Amino acid sequence: MSDAKIGAPTILSLDSPTTRWTASTGGASPPAGCGFTRVQPSPVSAVVLASGRVEGVRTREACCERCWAEALCVSSLHDAGAALCLLQTSPESGAATVLAAEVDEAWTRCEPKRADGPPLSLQIDASVPGDLLTDLQRAGVIGDPLREKNWLNSSLWNHHTWTYTASISTAQLGSRLGRPGSRLLLVFDGIKMGATVELDGARLGVAADQFLRYSFDVSDLAVGAPRTHTLAVSFDPAIHVDGRFAACTGGWDWAPYSHAYLDGAHTMSKGIWKSVYLAAVPPSSAAILHAVPQIFYRGDYPTARLEEGGHAGFREGGHAGFRVAVVVHFEAATPLRGTLRLATEWGPPCALPLSLPAGASNATIEAAARASEVRLWWPNGLGGQPLYRGSPVTVNRTVGFRYVALVTGNDTDPSFVARASGREGSGSHGAPLTVIPTDELEGRWSAAAHAEMVSSAAAARFNMLRVWGGGAFLPDAFYDACDARGLLVYHDMQYAQSGHSPKATPAREAELRRAATATQEAELRHAVRRLASHPSIAVWDGCNECQVVMGTPTGVYATFVMTVVASEDASRAVWPSCPAAGWSSGVRLLDALPTGRPLVTPKSRSRIETHGPYQHGSGFAAVNGASRLALFPPNLPIKLPDAAPTGPAHPNVFASEFGAVAMSSFESMAPTLAPKHWGLHAGQRSDNCSGGFERRCEGENVMAERNYPCDNMIEVYFGRAPAGYLDATGEAVFRRQLYQCLLAQARRRPDHRVPARRTRRAAPRQRARPLQALNVKSNIEARRARNELGILVWQLNEIWPTGGWGSLEYGTPVAGQVLGGRWKPLHYLYARSVFADVVAVCGEGGACYVKNDGPRPVAGRIAVRALEFASGVVTPLAAVAVALPAGAGASARFEIDLSAFDGSTHLLIAECIDDSGAVLSTNEMLFAPPSQLQLPTAVVSAGVAEAPNADGSIDVVVSASATALYVVLTSLAQGRFSDNAFALPPGTATVRFLPTGALDRSLLVSSLRAEHLQANLMPAPAARPYERPRAHLAA
């Protein structure tokens, strides 16, 4: 889990277990209540935190508790009449503002008190890279932070200064350090939350940005005989960090909310979350801080597709080649003369004479990549992903050759291409799953989990992922996997709401404001330089949901954030934010590559990128969602929008966030809960939850903290719950509740707004409106009926077992979890039909369409059939010939006769089959919600083969005594199934279990469960009758 290191002749790793680290605290005593004093009536100038005016705080005790939870708070003022709490801080904190208040006898000053007795003293072994909470759990000091409500007991890690300490010896660096002029750099690739770094008791500096690499010159250690030194990193909760840490730390509407804050932003984990090392640089050399390849296509703007003739832009071996410019950033102790050499896998080496000044500098070395020397890198499903290594001196970077354009105009029209050449801005057409961090606890992150998560996205036919701006710049393993699997990356800078925007600190001192801006600029430059070699990264954008408007506070994303990014990488498209309306100047109109001119957003523009709608959970008091049950129509069958032209020649929209919530499987949820709490309502009294989007819950209910409830999703599709059903606990009922919740997520009502840019699939979110969303599957099917050429679902993965938005479960392989995330039923539907290049969809009244988003023409037929539940008989309904040109967006409408089709007794199946007989996709479509289906009683079982197949998979034979719908297989074994959540007529079907790593057959056999719809319907009494009865289809 290390980043690419600084290039130096000698590197000494200080990571565990090579180096022994400890974490210790000898801090203040734990909190012991509050001292209250009346404030004399008078006007007061209170020095409060920037986010320190908290409304709705009814008691002075609650106000004092908020002060305890806020790391920068020293005391608080409470106005009982107005239910107002002011969190006071020191003017020197760097986070203070002055607020005038008229104080009367209703005001109380609250001063937290410490307990009598000795301060806490504790030392444990620590892991680097890692985090404090994981270390505390490993040492047995705390339980699993994600179990029950353990993470809320935060005083141990939130109210104390923790110091990580290690002993290091320079003897291991060899004789090179003995020569005059040698340099020794102490490098921290990542430190999370504010920390002071000391060596042998001498302060080296303060780390205040999670996303920035810190290096310190410790060349004095090279003088004299080698000896052992003490390195200490002290995490002080009172260090102001200006919001430069993952915004989702300590809570989002899919992550556990902590009750600990730093300047109003939630906090949770801290630690040395990336690698630490010493880099030794002899006097005759310089350290390479970064090697940044930028790859530029040398030909004209290509408009032909793949094998098409005319323009040679993308014919293998026939394109115009590429220019490779590698910007190398150096750090030299003294002025140097020498030669920079670049060795590549595709052509002869290059050399550049250098004359470097002392200190930081950079030089650019260029190479050509001719068409005959390289193969092209393609997104998933469009071709291969050949990668090439280049090596400037001691640093290696892997690159791929491709030309990515963020297209906002009709580039199928040669006249538009001619007019747009040399012009700036964005057009009115649209451009192209969102990824969140894999864990709140960085000590649990692993390269294998990130790689497996990306593999799961590729296997479900995704070709783009968005790195969300409220998380983190992810580890190299994620981007390496995207490079290898052809997943394009739409990359937010790490800015989001809740105290994490790129504004300078609100302190009065100009020096502090300048320091904050300089730190953020360094962060941006480091991030782009670190990641620019990855061919998967297609677009940089400024932030999550910040709506960049020039002349307002959000204009900083154009004038500062993206201006810095564009200055570092001219080879990629830049975009204001996600979502955005594009630029009026500063980028090339044809492909959105920066021109070097000021980036300016338009004053008004038609909507070409959208977020939403979102189907939130409701019906139970929780930290997210409404306590009141908010039902919505199931909208089955779906109603297709009116036919309209599709394809890149027509206006379109990029839908970069929408989704629906669901819990995870019993296997995932159960280990984080006590058995007595196995139920959607935990078998406990409901909490009292108040607030807006993010609510504060008072009470003991553990499920209230697991983000969204699922009551409304279940009742919409499975009918009204009998009294006490959702309150019930136990393994059997919890499994049923979770099956219902997961299946409900796999269905959602469409939003009939315009959509997309020219890429599809991935994962993001926003605020939903009632009755606007019903299911992700039918939502996407309706979007693909329109001209939405970019569809990114919110979200891909879960950060913990909860009521969240992901199609992959929590992917850290702790108890009950599968590496990279167990596939939810929705993810299997993505793979089977939803994101197939060629898919057929039918809706209300027999209205249907077929869509080709693939790169090649399609000729074949669509076979539409009906599966009768009672008998298991499959009856052909229609065979439609299809001939579609190459996509994206090639489509045709057709109709089938459903006058004799009864959605309560039959399932509609549409298969797309090409002329060779290959099945391109199979779409199973319900025409009524599960509560209204007339299903036979079925017994379903599953058995595992005795031996694996030659490819390492193993067969699983599933048997059904009668037609069974949505058969779901689940196991504790590491891996996934080749298909799942499918309809099974009477008889057997064989699927394969695809293991991650070595197959554990015994665990697969012992933990395999087969569920199906009939066994998980709502217990009696049943719900309302089906609304549109139809005649039964004759066999």
UniProtKB/TrEMBL annotation:
Enzyme class: hydrolase
Pfam families: Glyco_hydro_2_N2, Ig_mannosidase
Keywords annotated in UniProt: Glycoprotein, Glycosidase, Hydrolase
UniProt domain Beta-mannosidase-like galactose-binding: residue ranges: 123-273
GO biological process terms, semicolon-separated: glycoprotein catabolic process
An annotated Gene Ontology molecular function: beta-mannosidase activity
Catalytic activity of the protein: Hydrolysis of terminal, non-reducing beta-D-mannose residues in beta-D-mannosides
Beta-mannosidase Ig-fold domain ranges (all copies): 945-1013
Gene3D superfamilies, A to Z: Galactose-binding domain-like (2.60.120.260), Glycosidases (3.20.20.80), Immunoglobulins (2.60.40.10)
This enzyme's EC code(s): 3.2.1.25
PANTHER family for this protein: BETA-MANNOSIDASE
Protein name: beta-mannosidase
Natural source organism: Emiliania huxleyi (strain CCMP1516)
